[in-house]
């Protein structure tokens, strides 16, 4: 089973259990230990995963770090854990102290849902102020998961991770500056862009006008890029028949242009894929958007509906077909995470087919 699928299953576990997790210790047992296990380390081997490891700091004796991960008898990761309701950003000073006296090159601060990975890229043996990698179980990113693979027991390589960590650090910094420019373009950016096509002096009034033009242009460019990616994800341009199969089941009396696929529908589709990948290959799970609903099909067959998202009204509904393709059962949902509550119905639908 690949790393992403394991993390998606952990997400389902977190969603289902977190309201019952009332202590930091319970957070460690229910969420953090499974995460460590997903990385391939034996949580039942006290020479590989050491809980409550004594980490004396100066005159302070008996200080303990929650977990130390060892490989080839050398510490490679230290974990400091907090309750899932606490921020994973608010306690890095404690991890700083542990990191200073540890031989591990990487520290992880986590609340069981967010995992912030730190290194000493700025100064040797002094943990950086900001993480170079963040894994959010409730918002998994493919590029972050790819970096996380380097921390698994089978793939761990110090040099590779450090190279990636440095790159990620600067990418995050550049992205942050870029987002600032989108929100409020600086004079420097305006001058750089405008000088390429405008040869008149940039007086104050023109600078103000070009700032507004630049902000609109940047926003428009990004929105169009997102729209193109959404269409590409659904193969709208390449395979319009995936979205509207008029021969089998006419679904509207208009054209494809009336169909608007939202980011929320795509996110819901990814959740359903994650649930169904426990039973079948993701390649067999196909999207089909219509004016009335966003459908999920087995084998891209309109006669094999798995579920439908009715998100085009004030109230959102999930329609499942565990009782047969002609017996859809619509249930109101208030957020996308509730889709995980219908895992049994979705699996039953696959079993029926």
Shape: flat
Distance between the termini: 24 Å
Number of helices: 9
Unreliably modeled segments: 236-257
Helix fraction bin: 25-40%
CATH architecture of the largest domain: Alpha-Beta Complex
Which sequence of strands runs across the widest sheet? Answer: 1-2-3-4-5-6
CATH topology of the largest domain: tt1808, chain A
Radius of gyration, rounded? Answer: 25 Å
Could you provide a short overview of the structure?
With 353 residues, the protein is of the alpha+beta class. The protein folds into three domains: 3-169, tt1808, chain A (Alpha-Beta Complex), CATH 3.90.1570; 184-233; 240-352, Outer Surface Protein A, domain 3 (Alpha-Beta Complex).
Give the arrangement of secondary structure elements:
Elements: H1 3-17, H2 24-38, E1 49-54, E2 64-71, E3 74-81, H3 92-101, E4 106-110, E5 114-118, E6 133-136, H4 142-148, H5 158-183, H6 187-194, H7 204-233, H8 263-276, E7 285-289, E8 294-298, E9 305-310, E10 316-320, E11 329-333, H9 343-352
Parallel strand pairs: 3-4
Antiparallel strand pairs: 1-2, 2-3, 4-5, 5-6, 7-8, 8-9, 9-10, 10-11
